[in-house]
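Fold this sequence, please.
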Amino acid sequence: MRLSNIDPNQVEMVVLTHLHGDHFGGLPFLILDAKLISRRTVPLTVVGPSGTEQRVYQAMEVLFPGSSGADRRFTLHFAELEPGRPFEQHGVRVTSFLADHASGAPALAVRVECGGKVIAYTGDTQWTDNLIPAGRGADLLIAECYFHHKKVKYHLDYETLMEHSGELGAKRLVLTHMSQDMLGALDEVDCEWACDGREFEV
């Protein structure tokens, strides 16, 4: 964030799709930074599937024993998403849809509406028709794309995404969460892809 000149204290909300370490493992560090380095005083809201608050505090205790109960100068608020029921705060509307990815808690795809724009994110999941309302007409759909054509349980591949692109109807598609197989096939894809530091204007 700091390399991109983003002040962590300006982040008001973090939205999680599921509770695997590669998707929420940075949160304990963000919270610790807020207390010790950034000296945060404004509230921080963490929105995610059921079980989010417990899992985050467990991770904090594994990484920094005693940190979950430490005094803070800011309010840390957790809100658990219920598929199909929108959550609204700070002018942001988050609607979740049940995904298909084993993570010890419900995995979700999310649709985020803010400032007249819609950004959707599949999270990690194999194909499910729940992705259609999540991504339909979105200004930007971020999709995990683990392989180019190989089918793997609980994950998407480029071939499957292209087969369903008409149903999704997103204005732009950005691929992320790619394996070495997919990274080696980027010259064969007909859409954008994410990498560290790349910015997308919506």
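The longest strand covers residues 92-98. The beta strands are 13-15, 44-48, 76-80, 87-89, 92-98, 108-114, 117-121, 140-144, 173-176, 192-193.
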